[in-house]
């Protein structure tokens, strides 16, 4: 069991080896802040609980570095604010306006009624006004109210409060809040925050707004990362199809032969996480941390990270009239898994294969008429000989 400095050093080492830069920075800051802050006076039971929590974090980082999909997905979600304390901090500005009266303002209603941001079947707008769990006695003109008496005010408040808590607990917070004025994106943070304050979202700071935009742009870039084009001329074909001169001029030529014997094939690495039982469904076999695997993790994270788009009209006017024309839209990124436009850009090798296939197809189409003409001529000559 690792304790003290050994545990701290092992946590720092594992956090530095994470395959994503934002993920690594997040866990490094989290580990350093938790170890550097002065610990409060606590009992031996609380100290043992803190040590077990740190060791659990160490096993989680080891599983992510070893390639276990569920551990890597959890690390992605924690680093980008989809899970953990950052999730509740991002959702707080939408809950604060209706927290006292347990109502659903327009931004929160858009999140709750959208299937993109709701974890289960979203309610309808009419169910937000009248919860389906509210008894019929709440209506004084109903038959149940005339027979059993009207519902008390305390009971109705309790039902509405419970319905509000259940629905807001099933909402994913938006990864970013975009503002569109007159059909065009607002790129200035100050102008965007001013428009959000005008429509009722006053709890979102400029730092949080900018951080959400950066996270969304970074995830979209990582979900579609492709190899860069070589600076010299056209991209080379795959190495197995290159000429000797092309291989010699490549950026990474083959190493020169040496007199030392060839190195032995390294043994397969020993997994630090023991293979669990087959009943634990989340512990699949670990994956190799390839660029394709990381691209798919980023696209899967975008699938569960909604984006709130606030449409504001460009024409000026009274503030009340402008608030009535504001529209809130919840959508996924175009780079999310399964969405339109989620196909990444082709790499150099893939473009070479596409061009090569197009050339082969053109050659076959050009050779087919000639072959058909030769066949007809041969057929005509054979018929003449028979005559």
Automatic annotation (TrEMBL):
Region entry Disordered, spans: 114-144, 224-283, 331-387
Bias (Pro residues) ranges: 254-269
Residues in coiled coil: none
Extent of Low complexity compositional bias: 239-253, 357-371
Biased composition (Basic and acidic residues): 331-353
All residue ranges annotated as the LYR motif-containing protein Cup1-like N-terminal domain in the record: 7-91
Annotated protein name in UniProt: LYR motif-containing protein Cup1-like N-terminal domain-containing protein
Native organism: Rhodotorula diobovata
Lineage: Eukaryota, Fungi, Dikarya, Basidiomycota, Pucciniomycotina
């Amino acid at each position: 069991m690792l304790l003290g400095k050994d545990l701290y050093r092992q946590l720092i080492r594992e956090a530095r080896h994470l395959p994503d830069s934002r993920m690594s920075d997040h866990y490094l800051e989290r580990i350093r802040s938790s170890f550097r802050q002065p610990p409060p006076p606590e009992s031996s039971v609380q100290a043992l609980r803190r040590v077990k929590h740190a060791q659990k974090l160490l096993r989680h980082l080891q599983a992510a570095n070893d390639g276990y999909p569920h551990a890597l997905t959890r690390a992605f979600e924690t680093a980008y604010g989809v899970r953990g304390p950052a999730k509740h901090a991002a959702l707080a500005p939408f809950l604060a306006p209706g927290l006292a009266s347990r109502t659903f303002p327009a931004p929160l209603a858009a999140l709750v009624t959208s299937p993109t941001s709701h974890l289960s079947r979203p309610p309808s707008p009419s169910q937000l006004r009248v919860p389906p769990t509210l008894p019929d006695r709440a209506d004084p003109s109903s038959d149940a109210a005339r027979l059993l008496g009207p519902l008390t005010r305390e009971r109705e408040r309790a039902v509405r409060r419970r319905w509000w808590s259940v629905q807001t607990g099933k909402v994913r917070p938006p990864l970013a809040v975009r503002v569109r004025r007159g059909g065009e994106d607002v790129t200035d943070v100050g102008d965007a925050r001013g428009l959000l304050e005008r429509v009722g979202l006053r709890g979102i700071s400029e730092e949080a707004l900018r951080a959400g935009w950066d996270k969304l742009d970074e995830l979209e870039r990582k979900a579609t990362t492709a190899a860069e084009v070589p600076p010299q001329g056209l991209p080379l074909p795959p190495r197995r199809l290159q000429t000797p001169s092309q291989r010699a001029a490549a950026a990474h030529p083959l190493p020169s032969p040496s007199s030392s014997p060839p190195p032995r094939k390294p043994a397969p690495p020993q997994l630090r996480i023991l293979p669990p039982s087959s009943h634990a469904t989340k512990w699949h076999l670990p994956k190799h941390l390839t660029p394709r695997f990381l691209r798919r993790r980023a696209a899967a994270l975008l699938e569960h990270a909604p984006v709130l788009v606030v449409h504001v009209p460009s024409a000026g006017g009274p503030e009340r009239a402008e608030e009535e024309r504001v529209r809130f839209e919840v959508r996924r990124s175009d780079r999310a898994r399964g969405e339109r436009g989620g196909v990444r850009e082709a790499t150099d090798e893939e473009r070479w294969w596409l061009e090569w296939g197009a050339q082969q197809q053109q050659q076959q189409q050009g050779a087919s008429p000639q072959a058909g003409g030769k066949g007809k001529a041969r057929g005509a000559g054979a018929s003449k000989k028979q005559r």
